[in-house]
Amino acid sequence: MMPPLTIALPSDREIAITRTFRAPVDLVFDCWTVPALIKRWLGFADWTFVTCEFDARVGGKWRFVTRSPAGYEMGSGGEVLEITRPDWIKTNELYDQDWTGGQTIVTNRLAEEGGVTTSVVTILYPTKEARDGARATPMADGMETGFKRLEELLAEMPAY
Amino acid sequence: MPAPDSQLDLTFAALADPTRRAILARLAEGEATVNELVTPFNMSQPAISKHLKVLENAGLVSRGKDAQRRPVRIEAAPMAEAVGWLENYRRFWEHSYQRLDTLLDELQRFAPKGDKKN
Fold this sequence. Notes:
The complex is a heterodimer. Chain A is built from four helices and eight strands, in the order E-E-H-H-E-E-E-E-E-E-H-H. Chain A is α+β, with helices and mostly antiparallel strands. In chain A, a hairpin with a 3-residue loop joins strand 5 and strand 6. In chain A, helix 1 crosses helix 2 (35-41). Chain B is mainly alpha-helical. Chain B has a single domain, classed as Winged helix-like DNA-binding domain superfamily/Winged helix DNA-binding domain (Arc Repressor Mutant, subunit A). In chain B, strands 1-2 form a two-stranded antiparallel ribbon. At the A-B interface, strand 2, helix 1, helix 2, helix 3 and helix 4 of A face helix 1, helix 2 and helix 5 of B.
C-alpha cells in the first residue's frame, strides 16, 4: 500500500500535493509532459479532454480544455517556465474562468528511490486569499456538504 | 440569477474579506438586524451595511420582509455550492493520481526492466 496523497501548506501562498508512484521517474515525467499520456489520467472523474497540448520545452505553451459529462467545459493554459528531464517541471497557469484570482505558478519536483517516484506538486497562488480558498478543500474533506459545515469552514479560514 | 461561474466568483469575492466571514460566522448562529451587528463588530452602521450589500449580492445573506427590522439571515445554497466546488479540488488530485497509477502500471508492462534510463 502506497502512502496516500498529502496536502501541505509550505507558505502563505502555497499548497503542496505529495504522492508516490510505483514507477521509475522517467515514466512519471513522461506522464506529466506528453499530451497522449496526460489525457489518460489528469482530470475529474468522467471528464474528457477536448484539447490537450503541452509543448515540453522552456517557453513552450500548454493548454487543457476538459468537458464534464453534462457538457460544461473548463479550460486552462500557460507556459512552461523551466523543465529539466526527468525531475523538474515549472509552469504558469491561468484558468479561463480565473477562479484562482490570477495566475498560479505550478512546480513538480520528482525524485526516484528504489523504483518508487515521489512527486511534489507545489501551487503558488497570487495571494494568500486565493490560496485559502483552495486550502478549504482538505479541511472540508470527509464532511457532508451543507449548511451545517458553514461554521466549521469559516472557523478554519484565517481571520486576517 | 447569474450564471453558475459568476455566482461562484461573487461567493469567493465576498468570502475574501475577514469582516464578511466574521459576519457570516455570527449569522450562522441566527439572524440579526444591522444594529445588532454594529456593536460586536465595532463598526459604523454604513460600514456594516456596505459589507451586507456585498454578501447579499453574492446571495450569501438575505434580508427579512419586516420593514422595521429587516433581519439579515444566512443563505445556505451558494455557500454549499462553493464548498462542494472546493471539495472537487482534492477529488481532482486523488482521482487523477489513481488513474495515473493505472497508466504507469500499464506502461511498465511494455517497458523491459533495466531499460528505464534514456
